[in-house]
Write a structure and sequence with these properties.
Blueprint (H helix, E strand, L loop, with lengths): L12 E5 L3 H13 L3 E5 L2 H5 L8 E6 L7 H10 L6 E5 L4 H10 L2 E4 L6 H10 L1
Parallel strand pairs: 1-2, 1-3, 3-4, 4-5
């Protein structure tokens, strides 16, 4: 039997940035069940301080956090050349935030999440 010498794609990593520990931990649990590796960050500053972000993965960022908003964090990452796809989680349907997210190429998912809404958005962003 011939060996397959093609390299297997590394497992996608979902980077979660949310100031609520309960949200971070519940998202980590559910996304790991879906087969993703998960990294957790409490805020934008903590994420920006990490010099070893995964290249293969998706960012899941809460819009409303102390300090830097989710979209401001995406802007800062893009300025650093980090182009991972992103999903913005919001608590309300603010049209200005949605317009800005569209311009930035960021998917928007509203809390609370129903069914596989978040997982589907992550998978869509990775294709």
């Amino acid at each position: 039997m011939a060996k397959n010498h093609s390299k297997e794609q590394p497992q996608p990593t979902v980077v979660i940035v949310d100031d609520d520990p309960a949200v971070r931990n519940s998202l980590k649990f559910s996304l790991e069940l879906e087969g993703f590796a998960v990294r957790l960050y409490a805020d934008g500053g903590e994420l920006l301080a990490d010099s070893d972000l995964p290249a293969n993965g998706c960012l899941v960022i809460d819009q409303v956090m102390p300090g830097t908003s989710g979209l401001d964090l995406v802007d800062a990452l893009r300025k650093r050349g980090i182009s991972n796809p992103a999903v913005l989680i919001v608590s309300d349907s603010n049209p200005q935030v949605r317009r800005r997210a569209v311009v930035a190429g960021v998917a928007v998912i509203e809390k609370p999440f129903f069914g596989n809404t978040l997982v589907d958005a992550i998978r869509d962003s990775l294709t």
